[in-house]
UniProtKB/TrEMBL annotation:
Residues 1-25 form the signal peptide. This is Integrin alpha-2 domain-containing protein. Keywords: Cell adhesion, Glycoprotein, Integrin, Receptor, Signal. Residues 106-135 are annotated as: Disordered. The keyword Signal applies. SUPFAM superfamilies: Integrin alpha N-terminal domain.
């Protein structure tokens, strides 16, 4: 080795060693491969389709917490009576036991008031016989509850969705009954999400397309499939992917999920998705994936994946909600480079430089 090369190499090693000695945040680790945490659910339930980590705090004392793994099983048998393979949410302790996951009560406590939050009770004290069957105006079978499972925020809320949930609408309320005279109604594939409290007690339901215009059916909000994706954000809100809105252009909704009923913001914010202002064309599936963060400063920004936009190359559309208004402001779009690649099918955000 040449003398000059040796000096440069020696200097590089010394510099790296100095950095390691001066830094207190360098903590190397190895992945444990000998003792795996292997959790198993009901056969054929798609157990593990979605997974999230959840921390349950028993009090304000530091370290007084219980860690759980939340697992979605979209084809599981729910505890709600009168439903078949409507999907289920499981909580699993961090243990070496493979069969210690228990189902969390989700369906069966919801009413037409949309918000059932009373702030009382633990799900362990809600007995199965108290659960109500699905109403005559809804279809829970194969609704895929657990397709999206998220947790987070200041209050450690749990967010679980069923994007195939169907509401049956009275055909007399439509400009033209799609199913003909005497039919049971128009089936609205709008989706539903549930907010659970930190202790797994039921909070309230979120239906961002409920009550919106369905006169032109799929050209409006009849088949939203809200909850196909979701994210719980640090500001106490949830971002909901809704790829079926407006002839499958798709859109994103943002709703508050923290705070009491009286103090919580009830307004539903959304990305532009009408024919004039949508950043993507029909059949783009915007909202197939979502994420959010403070990308541009102290205010929240949102990203949504549209894997069939950009003439099939896929696209990620970024919005800002700096002024808390509808619709969001479209900031920039990132386009895929390969046709049919599914660019934007999944998204994740990370704070790389640690600025919050």
């Amino acid at each position: 080795m040449a003398h000059g090369t040796w000096k440069r190499w020696h200097c590089l090693v010394a510099t790296v060693a100095s950095i390691l000695l001066l830094s207190n945040s360098v903590l190397p680790f190895n992945l444990e491969t000998r003792q795996l945490l292997d959790k198993q659910g009901p056969q054929g339930s798609y157990f593990g389709y979605s997974v999230a980590g959840h921390t349950q705090r028993a009090g304000r004392a530091a370290g007084n917490v219980t860690n759980w793994m939340l697992v979605g099983a979209p084809l599981g048998q729910n505890l709600q009576p009168g439903s078949t393979r409507s999907g289920a949410l499981f909580r699993c302790p961090v243990s070496l036991d493979s069969n210690d996951c228990t189902q969390v009560i989700t369906d069966g406590h919801r009413t037409d008031d949309i918000d059932d939050e009373d702030g009382t009770g633990d799900s362990d004290n809600l007995y199965e016989q108290r659960l109500e069957p699905p109403g005559k105006d809804e279809i829970k079978n194969n609704q895929w509850l657990g397709v999206t499972v998220e947790t987070g925020g200041q209050e450690n809320k749990i967010f679980v969705c069923a994007h195939r949930y169907i509401k049956i609408n009275n055909p007399q309320s439509l400009a033209y009954p799609a199913s003909g005279p005497g039919s049971t109604g128009l089936y609205l594939g709008q989706g539903v999400c549930y907010v659970l409290n930190e202790d797994f007690s039921f909070g309230f339901a979120v239906e961002v397309c409920r009550g919106r215009s369905i006169e032109r059916e799929h050209q409006q909000y009849a088949f939203c499939q809200s909850g196909t994706s979701g994210a719980v954000l640090p500001d106490g809100t949830a971002l909901i992917g809704t790829p079926g809105a407006m002839t499958w252009k798709g859109t994103l909704f943002n709703v508050a999920i923290e705070g009491g009923f009286l103090s919580r913001d009830k307004f539903q914010y959304f990305a532009p998705h009408d024919n004039l202002h949508s950043p993507v064309p029909n059949y783009s599936y915007l909202g197939m994936s979502v994420t959010g963060g403070r990308f541009f400063g102290e205010y929240m920004a949102y990203a949504g994946g549209a894997p069939r936009a950009a003439q099939g190359n896929g696209e990620v559309v970024i919005f800002s909600n700096r002024y808390k208004k509808n619709p969001f402001d479209h900031v920039v779009s990132l386009r895929g480079e390969q046709f049919g690649s599914g660019f934007g099918s999944t998204l994740a955000s990370a704070d790389i430089n640690g600025d919050g």
